Amino acid sequence: MASASQLLPPAPPPAAPLHRPRTRSHLAVPRLRCRAASSAAASSGASLLERGGSAAEVALREFVTLDELRAAVRLRVRTFCEYAVDSVGAEDHRKALADREFEALQDRISGKMINFQRVSCINGTVPLSPSLMTADELCSMCKFVEDGEERVVVGSLDLNQCLWLPDELTGKRPGVNEDSQTRAYLSNVCVAKELQKKGLGYALVDKSKKLAREWGITDLYVHVAINNIAGQKLYKKSGFVYEGEEPAWKARFLGRPRRLLLWFDMNKEPL
User: Where is the N-acetyltransferase domain (predicted)?
Assistant: First the structure.
């Protein structure tokens, strides 16, 4: 599922793309904010995904290490960029795109990018197990090691506290307030194709709402492509309602499907 705003930076395309539609390593990055949590603590809020007759425990949390953050970025590139099997330079392009997004995401989280007041990457991860090993590409691209345990990022999103996202329709609520910013956007919402339609997307969005409430967010937004029916159903189920939509000319200029802007009232109900 690639249902929300994508902040992956552009890069030169490969020759034949199909289309683009426990060491605490984070301590080496100045001001990089993340929530440290042990695997046991993360598992306390875990859900179970059935896959091939077996159950996989999914831990939902803010990222802990840079290795996990990089694995999340790789999942996004895998989700948002598709290539023909015989594309020349496709793997090099994927790697370059992942490297650029990894640096950009660190800058957003650390507060180096103007407009982003606070950003967190929320991931769903599972232990690397025999039942998951059939998804060779997913395991090889999105694996990381924490406390000696191999895990795989299978879902991810960013929660961005800011007044707008680059190249996106801007939410109107609660308006511009010079004293505080209580508007937030979800972006880069994705779930590994092998584990879609199992409730993980809904669980990630629900987790982001809980964190947004901790931040004092009053209005939560997400963008979704007008042709992404699955994404629209997910957000409707999560309580989002229509606020506006992108002009057709802008979508053509940016070379992408037109997007809807959906809004969730954080004051509507307790989480």
Answer: 163-267
Collapsing DSSP to helix, strand or coil, 217 comes out as coil
Q: How many CA atoms lie within 13 A of 78 on its CB side?
A: 24
Both tokens of 258, joined, read: 């037109």
- Please pick, among 83, 185, 221, 235, the residue that the annotation labels catalytic: 235
pLDDT one-digit tens code per residue, 37-61: 333 334 334 554 554 444 468 999 9
Is 235 a known active-site residue?
yes
CATH class of 25-265: alpha beta
Residue 122 · residue 207 · CB < 8 Å: yes
Among 222, 267, 268, which residue's Cα sits nearest to residue 245?
Answer: 222
Q: What is the pLDDT of residue 84?
A: 57
The token duo for 114 is 């103007």
Q: How far is CA 170 from CA 6, 23, 30, 64, 99, in A?
A: 15, 39, 30, 30, 28
pLDDT band at 229 (very low <50, low <70, confident <90, very high): very high
Contact 160, 112 (CB under 8 A): no
Q: What is the pTM of this model?
A: 0.82
At 251, is the pLDDT very low, low, confident or very high (cuts 50, 70, 90)? Answer: very high
Q: Which helix (H) or strand (E) holds 61?
A: strand 54-62
